[in-house]
Specification:
Layout lengths: L1 H16 L20 H7 L6 H11 L2 H6 L2 H24 L6 H23 L3 H22 L16 E2 L2 E8 L2 E8 L4 H12 L10 E3 L3 E4 L23 E2 L8 E2 L3 H4 L15 E4 L13 E4 L18 E8 L1 H4 L8 E8 L4 E2 L3
């Protein structure tokens, strides 16, 4: 009965917010042990082809369950296997790097190897806090290696959207609020138009001073409604509200889905490349009348394991995620409708914004 009440509450929230247009499916939602760490999601979303490096990433990330349970022997075995794997695959990883990046890659591989050794030391001392810190640093280095291999070419975008800005890569933003600072990474590899619109408006100062207009416990915190009668961004050239299509990328699919939900295309069990799977997922809002009328309003997903479980929520496939809060979660949890955005500053990646096709 408790789960039924939670499900009914979630459906009521969805309906009242006007974020979704499709009726919730009764079956076929994605299953599995979903990834809930924003840093891991962002690593998984990097477009590159090097199976050994991806395998190494997943091996180190896969220690999380044993770490939570303090299964020290299992952790030690996993790290020994990971270090052996790195030793045997090091040459293949280096061979996949561009010649100009070889020296950098060698240094990063040395750092990963040293990181695994340091993790083993923390395991031997049964120091959970120290292991978490070293593991995070080592995985960040793995991400730096993966970034060297990332294809900077974004997926093809339909010509009907040629006038819209697009982000070719990633950008980092600092979101200053009345409660404090948040840091978020915006992903143009997998949501170039959505991320591009957000970065474009951030650079214009569009969001500065705007209030949070919706705050639903365990669901969303939304802003981006400008002052005055408009509900979106008015393009000064066209004098019309600029619209950004619903944009969702799915692993293994050649083309990005535009202005269609997962139900529309029959992908009932799919998980997006950028899922709503963690606290602070950035999502683009649209009305309940159209999938393609999102303009400027965005929300931060307030992940809650019971109401909106990773891989089992009703937002994936109906709204576009375009990035993740990576720092400032304590601030995010304090924000409500009495708060506002002070400013959004692009601290890295502004040069990756392209104003149009």
């Amino acid at each position: 009965m408790a789960h039924q009440r939670l499900a009914a509450l979630l459906v009521a929230l969805i309906t009242s917010l006007g974020l979704l247009v499709a009726e919730p499916a009764n079956a076929g939602l994605p299953q599995g042990n979903a990834v809930k760490d924003p840093a891991a999601i962002l690593r998984d979303a990097l477009p590159f082809e090097q199976p050994d490096l991806r395998d190494l990433q997943h091996r180190l990330e896969g220690t999380s369950d044993d770490l939570r349970a303090k299964r020290w022997s299992a952790l030690s075995r996993s790290l020994t296997k990971s270090q052996a794997f790195l030793s045997t695959r090091r040459d293949s990883i280096l061979a996949s790097m561009a010649s100009d990046d070889q020296t950098i890659a060698e240094g990063l591989l040395d750092a990963v190897d040293a990181g695994i050794t340091a993790m083993q030391t923390e395991v031997d001392q049964q120091n959970k806090t120290g292991l978490i810190q070293v593991r995070r640093k080592t995985l960040t280095t793995v991400g730096d290696l993966e970034a060297l291999l990332t294809d900077e070419t974004i997926p093809a975008i339909p010509t009907e959207f040629d006038a819209l800005p697009r982000l070719k890569g990633r950008a980092t933003v600092s979101i200053s609020t009345s409660q404090g600072e948040l840091t978020a990474v915006v992903d143009g590899y997998n949501a170039p138009l959505t991320a591009g619109a957000f970065i474009d408006l951030s650079l214009k100062g569009f969001y500065d001073g705007l209030p949070f207009i919706r705050a639903e416990d365990f669901y969303i915190l939304q802003t981006g409604d400008p002052k005055g009668p408009e509900i979106g961004y008015i393009d000064p050239k066209t004098k019309q509200e600029r619209h950004v299509p619903l944009e969702i990328r799915v692993p293994g699919e050649a083309e990005t889905i535009y202005n269609e939900t997962f139900e529309d295309v029959g992908l009932y069990k799919a998980t997006p490349t950028l899922p709503f799977a963690t606290l602070g997922t950035l999502g683009w809002a649209h009305s309940d009348q159209s999938l393609g009328d999102g303009s400027s309003q965005f929300f931060m997903f307030l992940y809650e394991a019971e109401l909106t479980p990773a891989g089992l929520n009703l937002v994936d496939g109906r709204n576009a995620a375009f990035g993740y809060v990576v720092d400032g979660f304590d601030v995010l949890e304090e924000l409500g409708v009495d708060d506002r955005v002070v400013s959004i500053k692009v601290i890295d990646g502004a040069d990756r914004l392209q104003p149009h096709a």
